[in-house]
Every structure is written in structure tokens, then in C-alpha cells.
Amino acid sequence: MKEQKTSVFKKITGNRNFGLLVGFVVLLIVAAIITPSMYSMNSIMNMLRNNAVYALLAVGSMMVIITGGIDLSVASTLSLAGVICSSLMSSNMEVPTFVWVLLGLGIGIVCGAFNGFLVGYLKMVPIIATLGTMYIFRGFAFLASGGKWWFPHQFTEGYANFAGGRFLGIYNILWIVIIVFILAGIFLGYTAPGRRIYAIGTNKESAQVAGIKEAKVTFLAFVISGALAGLSGMLYTANYSICYYGMGESYEMTAIAICILGGVSITGGKGKIDGVIIGFLMMSVITYFISLLPGLSVWQDAIQGAIIIVAVAINIFTERAVEKRVLKERGALI
């Protein structure tokens, strides 16, 4: 009985998310001591609302990273979708909001499909392919906008409320994030395509032997990433009631940082949605905490860069520890 309890304890504490959760709790305590005002309900809601787009981009990025790839174009896709939706909405205010939601998703799917074609079927290196499309999509966003900005008075009430309205006291954009988290968890954990995404990232050769088509799975991962980026573009403009072609710059790095912080292996094959959720919450608290401290806001990018390095180091040490434990257990069995 005692050995069983010890085994359960080791299993819990050996889980990387347990350490991540402990770190998150410590962060909350430190932040509460230094800036207690950030834990009012209104502050928490606004903090999560302002970071909600990062969560959506992180879920899409997670799909691609698990396959062993990377998508640097998500922020540019966000910009392109946001510009096109805002431009058409401001001149067609009688059109219902759900049309612009579908349009944002559609633009994202097209961008993701293009990335998926380059990487999955033309076998281009993901970082090179998406670095190119990052500039292409941003260029299209500039052309579509003509350098123009859209301001609150140019957004319909229904469009703005789609993200900024509330249901049961929670912002609509946060309900969308919750739904996406749930759907992503079900997709990755309980569907055949989700399991194939893990298989491709774990071992491409073994996956191919098992009959899994790498190109098709990679294409799907990029399409999902693009779709969520396109939706994020529409939601960004609805959430802030503002739009310009340069919006979302460097958001792709924050999304990747959330994934890495949440335990998604940059080499592919590993990562769970619960880790990304914790990573998103940690990043939200960190960015909001920094913004409340005088003089530290200018260091935000540097601090996020340091977080990425630390998170990658933790991932490396964790994976090595797991490998050593597995080898030790095998040796004991032999």
C-alpha cells in the first residue's frame, strides 16, 4: 500500500505540468504581494481579455509544433484577416456579424492551406516557408488596407460585441477561447487525426510505415493553425474596435513562447492542451504584472525572450530526466 502511494506521488510530481503549476502558483503569490490590485475580478477579466488572442494563436501553433514544424506566419494571417474583415464590414454594416466570423476563418484556412502545401507537399523547411509567407501575408494586409486605420466609430455594435460583449459576466472572446481549448483537447486526445499529428512529430519513419500520410497530416495542422489565426484577426479588431495592417506584430513569438512554456516540445511529438492553458495563464499574468510596474514595461520583450530560453532549458532537462528514468526502469526489469 505504501509503495502504491509512493508510486502515485512520483507520478504526480514527475509530471512536468505539476512543476509548471507550482511555478504558476508561486508567480501568483509574488504578484499578489507586489501588486495586490491586479487580482480584482475586473482586472482579471481585462487581463485575460487582452491576452485572449495569444491563446488562440498558441493552440494553432501547438498543432504545427507537435508535428515537428513551426508557423511564423500566424501574426501576419491575423493582420490580413482583420484588415479584410474590418474593411468590408465598415462599408457593409447591414451584413450580420457571423459572416465576418466565417470570412476571418476562411482567410485563415486559405493562408494555412498555402503553408501546408509548401511544407507538406513541396517539402519545404517549415521555418523557411512560413518566414516567407509571414512577409507575403503582411504585404497583402498592407495592400488591402492601403495604409488606412479603422477606429471605433467605424465598427458596428454587433461586430464589437462579438468579442467585447459579456455572457454570464465573462467576455465573449473568453468563451470562444474556452471552447477552442475544449475542442483542441478532444481533437488531440480522442480523434484519429489528432493521434496522427503526435505520431508524425514523434517518429516520421514509423508513422509512414504505419500508413500515416505525413503530407496530409502536416497540411491539416497548418490549416488548423491558419484558421485560428484568421479567427484571431477578426476577434482582435472586434475586441479593440481598431484595425491597421501592422497589428499583431511579433504575436507569433508570444504564441510559440506560450507553447514552449506549456511543455510543448520544440522538436515535436509532445505537448498537451492543459500545459498550453497553464502557459497562457502564466504569460498573461507575467505581461500584466510587468505593465503595472513602473519602468519594467520597456523590458517586456527582453523578459519574454528570457522566458523562452528558460522554458526551452526546462523542456530539455525534463526530457533528459524522463529518458534516464525510462532507461533505469528498463535496466531494473532486465
How would you describe the overall organization of this protein?
A hairpin with a 2-residue loop joins strand 1 and strand 2 (170-171). The chain has helices at residues 2-14, 16-34, 41-66, 74-91, 97-121, 126-145, 157-164, 172-190, 192-202, 204-209, 214-240, 251-261, 273-292, 300-333, and strands spanning 166-167, 170-171. By secondary structure, the protein is mainly α. A two-stranded antiparallel ribbon has the order 1-2. Helix 2 (16-34) runs parallel beside helix 13 (273-292), helix 4 (74-91) packs antiparallel against helix 5 and helix 5 runs antiparallel to helix 11. It starts with a helix and ends with a helix. The model has no long low-confidence stretch (mean pLDDT 85). It has one domain (45-266, 274-290). It is a multi-pass membrane protein. This is Rhamnose transport system permease protein. It is found in: Cell membrane.
